Amino acid sequence: MADTRAPRPSTDEESAPLLQNVSHPDDGPASQHEEPTFFDRLAAVVQEPLSPLTKLLLVATLLFLLLSSIFIGLFAGAQHKINSGAGRGQTTVTTTTTATATTTAQVTTTAVSTTTVLIPAPAPTGPPVQPVCISPSCISVASSVLASLDESQDPCENFYDFANGGWLKANPIPSDKGSFGHFEEIALQNRRLLQQILSEDASSHFSAASALASDPYDEVLLKKLRGLYGSCMDEDHLDDLGEAPLRDMAKKIRELFRGKTTVVDAESTASEKERDRLTATVAYLHSRGVSALFDYSIDGDAGNDPNFMSLWLSQGDLGLPSKEYYEEDSVVELYRDVLERLLLTLDDEDDSMDVKPAQEPGLVVHEERLRVWPPWPWPPWGDDDDGGEKPENRSQRAKKLSTAIIEFEKKIANASLDLDVLYQDPLATYNPVPFKNVSDSLPGFDFATYFSAFAPRSFPATIILTSTTYLSDLSRILNDTDKATLEAYFVTRAGLELSPYLGLDTEAWKAVRSLQEVLSGIKKGAVGDRAEYCIARTESALGFALGRYFVREAFGGASRETATKVITDVIETFKKSLRNLDWMDKESAAGAARKADALRVKVGYPLSPNTEDPRSIANWYARVKINSDTFFENMVSARVADQIRTWLQLGKQRDPEAWEMYASTVNAYYNPPANEHAFDSAGRLYNQDGKLEEWWTNKTSEGFKVRQKCIVDQFSNYTIDDGKGGEIHVNGNLTSGENIGDSGLIQAYRAWKAQYNDEKEFLLPGLNYTREQMFFISFARSWAQNIKPAAAVARVRTDPHSPNRFRVHGTVSNIPEFAAAFNCSSKAKLNPPQEKRCIFW
């Protein structure tokens, strides 16, 4: 279920394994007698003779730690030495790979290692004047860069297409996807390795590590992993089952909502019985990770004790991605059709209870009269000639209910916070209140019983609300909604969320897929590789277990320790840069330095659960029962275990070693209360202990706000094509945190310029660009992405990241060094006057 307060991963998927710590075969003897510099240490990690998959993951994983908008940028300055003594004297190459990180407060971390060419200034281009590197690795990197460029474009006017035009032409969007970018390309490489782990027999796959293969805990883990993956791949069995698993769940929902399986006091009033039924239904859905009415998360109490795990309540997910879609007639009509198809598919004709719209909720219809729909004679409680209305058939009823569901969801949407507030304003969304206040705000719901359903270790005396008005508004909406609509809403919530676990020939799967196709721009009827889908689902359910074997295949040597050392060096560089910010006074800079020291550095793979200890991981997934050949049931089992695990954290102290992502996931997040935080528009409000407070001075805060408004206005002026002849503006408020994070690129550039050594630079063959130009080209290449209009619209409306084109153009236009590197004229689009630039760092 959606969790708006939990650490949010980046939507930019970056996937590749970490590197081994071995020497590069091209390293010459000269390097063996030199004290290793910061860049040499980075080179030892990045430039190892492993697979491209291995090389890419380390750089991307390093960014996992660079959770500050500034930390990221500084990483981009890394130079590495890959050849010494090759050719005539010195031969070096610097390659650039960039990766992104996102979380609750939504800041993107960009890690860059740069391809550098030694060309004399000031000319922007020209033939190399020193020997070039002709090793296979250098030729490969140079070929990749050349293939990505479109040199017919003016870099000062359209830098994104200049750096990526070749790649964009060579990498069209697959028909089953709404977008395809550089990160997705890398992710495919990771999935090939994961597929090998999931497909091979344990004894053969780990023949070189007999101890691992014979460990009983590893046997259990591998059995679960391959059992889940195998049940997903068994499409014939999925087709044989049809909608049965989802029908069973829909039946359970109806039974709970109608009170059939709900234990209630015989002396309870009618309103109390309705409350108990509503509570039981919502608890059942939430226990399976299905969002309904509201959502919850367990995280630190940011305003009091960031390490005390507390309950947060927030607004629930909508059936459509955002409020705006409910105003589009074509989308609403499609959504209504999807809901109608789900209701017809999941209808229970033989149930002895029928809750009709506009009728009393307790009406009982004899079971025998429901064997044929509509039951006849009608009405079932009297004579057909007594003036009763003609019965509705199933199709009419489903159509009416689907329309009612949409009206219900519209009301919830209107009561919900806008996403820019939810994601970017931690002060407005931190509202701790006593339990009684929550209960009084929604009297038709029994929160005490709801909590007990999850068996938390301690009852939450205080609950943190993201909105002070949502629950009371929800109470009013529920009172105005008939019971038939609520029941249909709960059934379709499960259908929308869990239908993808059914066979592709089922009506429920096809209905939900038709909505996804329109919202994402996917070609109608196009289905991707089944193995790719099943790998992703297995990772989502058992990611720490899968990560254990991924690490054993992809990691080696001391790469993890070396990478950690690189990160700590970056932190020290950041602290030194604080003194140069004219808008940050000494007091605030000192606090920022303390915050940098408190950063929790997490590289490579987690120690909680311990990737190196199979017992630790087996205990983590002990509640996941993969003992069925039914993929649907296996995935639901994993969801239930995940929700129980979440609730068991309530009232405990935070586990400082806990991770929110898996070793096989090359991405990043930041969680401010956990000291995995940043200095963007939201992260700046958390101090070095992860506590929510205004720790900057007023002067520094005002200086930041001026720059923040500048960047909000800048990005709000960017527009995308909606695919229907119109344009949609980027939400500068929603994306401000990420845009500020991207602006840290300037610090990366300065750090790189200050630390590289001309005598250790190497040239790539065929690239007639200066080292400064290659820095920016490498940055832009990381954001290469083809995206369909429908997917772009969804991103603008829901994603705190700006479209990739604007992440490039918006960032470089605020950096004077970019214009200088490419000799841009004063009238060039990406070289605005200094007073119009939004400069933070």
Report on this model:
The structure is a single chain. The protein is mainly α and 841 residues long. The chain folds into 2 domains: 29-186 and 558-588 and 650-693 and 696-836, Collagenase (Catalytic Domain); 244-520, Neutral endopeptidase, domain 2, CATH 1.10.1380.10. Helix content is 46%, strand content 5%. The protein has 32 helices and 10 strands. It has a 4-stranded mixed beta sheet with strand order 4-5-7-6. Strands 1-2 form a two-stranded antiparallel sheet. Strands 3-10 form a two-stranded antiparallel ribbon. Strand 4 and strand 5 (305-315) form a beta hairpin. It is globular. Mean pLDDT is 80; it is low at 11-123, 206-211 and 351-386.
Short description:
This protein is mostly helical and 841 residues long.
Counting DSSP E segments of at least 2 residues, the number of strands comes to 10
Number of helices: 32
SS content category: mainly alpha
Instruction: Estimate the strand proportion.
Output: 5-15%
CATH architecture of the largest domain: 3-Layer(aba) Sandwich
- The first-level CATH class name of the largest domain: Alpha Beta
Principal-axis shape equals globular
CATH topology of the largest domain: Collagenase (Catalytic Domain)
Our measurement of the CA-to-CA distance between the termini, rounded to an integer number of angstroms, reads 37 Å
Helices, strands, pairings?
Elements: H1 38-46, H2 52-62, H3 69-75, E1 98-99, E2 111-112, H4 136-148, H5 159-170, E3 179-181, H6 182-199, H7 202-205, H8 210-214, H9 216-233, H10 235-241, H11 244-257, H12 270-287, E4 294-301, E5 305-315, H13 329-345, H14 394-415, H15 419-424, E6 431-434, H16 435-441, H17 447-452, E7 462-465, H18 470-479, H19 483-498, H20 507-520, H21 530-554, H22 559-577, H23 586-597, H24 614-620, H25 631-647, H26 698-716, E8 719-721, E9 727-729, H27 736-742, H28 745-755, H29 771-781, E10 785-787, H30 789-798, H31 804-812, H32 816-821
Parallel strand pairs: 5-7
Antiparallel strand pairs: 1-2, 3-10, 4-5, 6-7, 8-9
